[in-house]
Design a protein that fits this description.
The chain is an alpha+beta fold and about 190 residues long. Helices cover about 50% and strands about 20% of the residues. It is built from seven helices and seven strands; from the N terminus they run H-H-H-H-H-H-E-E-E-E-E-E-E-H. Strands 1-2-3-6-7 form a five-stranded antiparallel β-sheet. The two termini are about 30 Å apart.
Length: about 190
Amino acid sequence: GLRWKGIFATHWDHDVADAFEVYKNARNEDVHTGSNPWTSLPSVKLNEYFYLLAERGTKALGTSLEDFLGEHTTAANALLDARTQRIDEQYKKLTGEAKSRFVTLSKSAEDLAERRASATIGTRNITGRNKVAIAKVCPVCGSDALLFVDPVMASPPTITDGQLVQSVSAHPQRFACSVCGLRLDGNILLQHA
């Protein structure tokens, strides 16, 4: 897995990790048990994951999907476009539900003020072992919310003007707003926010 993270360094996210995990587990089952796990996996999902990995991998390597897939590029793009449309619809549904909750909530000024105050207190940047939460503004209600990220790489720490400074690259994993209840999981949904 770590070698693949190196290849996909700037394109590794929750969705690529899921795709990679499906292929890795199926391959391991095939090699170590002699069974055929590929027949139990839905072919549309396998193709979608394959094309997603191909798209991200060719970008990471500085080439194109067409260079890699040739005549199959049209089919790959159609499947990836359908996936993008599904994700767009899911984002609209999730934000619509959160907006409805927020409209209901904002009818009670006291409850809204109380929830926003508690959200502000709870949204300071948090760092822990391999986990980071960053305070962000919710795109639905404008309240303080948390963006949870997975650190991938870090530069060596340096001292600049008496301060310890370190640059960290991270991939967003989850967004959570405690005021309107918006929850977004996975990098693709988070790109909308």
